[in-house]
Amino acid sequence: MQYVAYCYLGVYKTKEDMFQHIHPYEPFFPEGATKLIVGTLPPPRFTTGKLNERDVDFCYGSSNGLLWPVLDRIFNLKLKYETTLDAANQRKEFLTTRGIGVCDIVQSCERNKIDASDLGMQNITLRDLIFYVKQYPKIDTLLFTGGNSKNGPEYFFRKHIKKYQLKLEVVSSEIPRIHRFELQDRIVRTISLTAPSGAANRSIGSLQFYKNKKNMNPEFNTLDFRVAQYREFF
After folding, report:
1. Is residue 58 in some structural domain?
2. How many structural domains compose the chain?
């Protein structure tokens, strides 16, 4: 057996020992899409198919994720949170009605440890996001579910567009950061939203905007913060 240089806590692993984390969903593009949600990968249990009862078998369907609860609040969707076809179809219908696609930028990666951390991804294969955006000429906004930290959606997108000789221009450096780039004579914005995961709550708590809101209303929480942020761009 050929050994390769994967090392985790001092233990060398073979390629065969690595968890093959493959995105389980094809990109979702409703006709006439104008916005595109871009993340990385769902948790590994979506690759293995071992979902829990409150997971939804669709993009961002993790019971630990906050994207759908946030959108549920904004649009009063009355979503189901269960592993049923009805729950998945609710989300597809919403996206189709609003002209919103979903195309996570990571197609696959390998992991030493089977978890959902962005930093744990190795040997990453990216999807050709620009290729998809070219196919849908009405798309003018990419909604990154995270920022430019290592292995986040904006971070990968910056790497990806280099082969197209494209460059992001800063529109606003405030949170959420906004950039733009030109593609086939159209301008496409990118919005780096605060990640819809519990891991981002600490960074939210350090923001002055959040602190001010919390001082005014002690019941204001990190979900409320995301609702206020996402509402502007969805």
Report:
1. no
2. 1
Cis check for the bond before 27: say yes or no (omega within 30 of 0).
no
Please report whether residue 64 resides in a domain.
Answer: no
CA trace torsion 200, 47, 132, 88 (10° rounding):
-80
The answer to whether 156 and 105 have CB atoms below 8 angstroms apart is yes
* Spatial separation of the C-alpha atoms in residues 127 and 106, rounded to whole Å: 6
Distances (CA, A) of 50 to 69, 109, 117, 177, 227: 22, 19, 18, 35, 30
Q: State pLDDT tens for residues 24-77.
A: 999 999 999 999 999 999 999 999 999 999 999 999 999 999 999 999 999 999
Domain annotation covers residue 124: yes
CA 202-204-208 angle, to 5 degrees, is 125
Write out the DSSP string of 84-125: SHHHHHHHHHHHHHHTEEE--SEEEEEESS-S--STT-EEEE
Q: What is the pTM of this model?
A: 0.90
Query: Contact at 8 Å (CB) between 83 and 91?
Result: no
| Dihedral sign of CA atoms 32, 34, 40, 42 in order | negative
Q: Which two tokens stand for residue 230?
A: 């996402």
